[in-house]
Design a protein that fits this description.
410 residues, 2 strands, 65% helix, elongated
Amino acid sequence: AMAPRPAPPPRPVAAAPGAPARAPARSLAGLVAEKWPLFALAAASALVTFLVQRRTGAVAPVDVFPLGRRLGNAVFAYWRYLGKSLWPTGLSPHYPYGSGAEVGMAAVAAAALLLVTVVALGLVRKRPYLAVGWLWYLGMLLPVIGLVQVGGQAYADRYTYLPVIGLALAAVWGVGDLVARSRPARVAAATAALAALAALALLTARQVPRWRDTRTLFTYTLAIEPGNRFAHHWLGVALLQAGDTAEAVPHLEQALSLPPGYEAGLRRALAANPADLEARRLLAATLAREGRVEEAIGEYEEILARSPGDLDALINIAWIRATHEEAGHRSGAEAVRLAERARALSPEPEAVIYSTLAAAYAEADRLPEAIAAGERAVALARAEGQTAEARRYAQQLASYRAGRPFHFGP
């Protein structure tokens, strides 16, 4: 009897025309190992960033932001970032660190993060894009979520630029699966996407003008969050630079959490750190507002001794010497010297400098030069869209054209 022939080996089944070839299965260890250069680059970048921020004093110590408080803020920040991405309103350049979330609410936020993660991983075979997108979002936010606190912000819009790519990936692929078999559903999805883009474009068009200059930006910031000390500080600095000392002082006091006129706190701050020019500037402005003019000028002169090119100090002394209501505090020659020095040091023409220079020339009885400088101040303010300033400078210019200097109390 003849032995039976062995059965031929099965032929490989050819893939259907146009179907993508399936990649061979890879182990998790192999997938991680092949990406070690990327992990190394990420670790090096994180280390360099941490060292630079710590050297500049931006890394907050644990006694200022305890670990428990950081963890509570971090789990809430994940949901805040998600909310701002889906509904981008009330955006701010600085979100101050609050008093901290309650333990119960922080536990709920953490449980919600864990639940979404478990669901995404549970659907990894049927809907792998959900796990990829969600883990992308969680992982890319982790270095900036506040476990290592840099600065005083609780969270920051700029940190979402890359993490939200993961959310977009999950959303686009998910919607694509839902509407793949229905033409009306695909049309509806495309229409909704266009409507969302149009709404985001409108919101962007409204947001961009708020970044026109420091004063506009932080006036808007205080409108949405009146107690923001960061915004009070920078708005006060901008007002000082514009010569609006009386309006600047309350904002700077708010920034330092000082009650109005609380001079002792400023002097303690300067005793601890005499090189703190902003505290000295606030003290000078406070003294001027209280009528202690020569003391105020002394503080501005101390600023100039430490920083000879400080335009704000030059302008403020020149303005007082040119416009003070009491003749004993005025000196046209000194005002001209300081205002001309500010003009020479300024990297570009500024309306407030030319306004101060015009007042100084007028006090020194150099009216033709005062009129020319005043006209330049008005033109520069109008070119920058500073309507209120242009109106004020025009009123001062009217005095020079009438042959009179402009005198104004501190």
